[in-house]
Each structure stands twice: as C-alpha cells, then as structure tokens.
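Hey, resending since the last one bounced:
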Amino acid sequence: MELFDASVTFPGFVYPPGLKKVAELGLDDLDIWFIMDAPFAQRYCESINKRYPNRQLVPFAKREDCDDVACFEIGKPGKVEIVHDFASPGWERRGEYDDFWEWFTDAVKLLVERSREDEAYDAAHGIE
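The structure tokens again:
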C-alpha cells in the first residue's frame, strides 16, 4: 500500500516507522478503521485542512462508522490526533495518542471487541 506523500504539502514531514511498517505489511483494513491509500489521503488532506485552517493535519486513517479521522499534526511530532471531521472548528478534537503504535493498538482492540460482539450475536441467533 502506498501512503500519501504529505511532504509535498508539509515540507519535511515524515511518517513514523510504525505506519510505514503497517502499510508495507498491507494491514490497512482494521474493520472499523482503515488506513487511507495515497489518492484518498491526498484529497482528504486538502479538504480537512480547509475545514480546520488553524491546524495542519495529515490524515492517515478513517473510521467506517463515524466521521473520526486519525491524523498527525504539524508541530506535534509523533502524536496522533483524533479529529471528528465536520464538527465546528474548536469542537473537532476527540482525543490524542502519544504515538502511532498506541493508536494502532487501540484500533486492533476495537476490531477484536467488535468481532467478538458480532460472533456472540451470530451464535445467539443461529447465524453461521
């Protein structure tokens, strides 16, 4: 999977090694969260920065079930910002992770939790 070259928009920006590793391994679909491919991320980067002009966001993942987006923010090295896209400016911040691996760990935990819930539901209702 190819990541968006965000250094074109934000000179000097480099993705953390963890995200590069995940992309190299093709671990881009975590059910609820998905890692954005280059074309999608480029378009999203342009649009989210128009909506939040006081921030410099590099989106890299999006939730399927809501408007939450995982981003790196220029000036906050290594941190992952969770932005609730389309919220009014100033109200968009949903959370922050210390680094990519902390975010990825939570995303995988959410995948496991939701999968277990789905499996339990299916078992209770005789669905194979």
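The chain has a mean pLDDT of 97.

Sorry for the duplicate.
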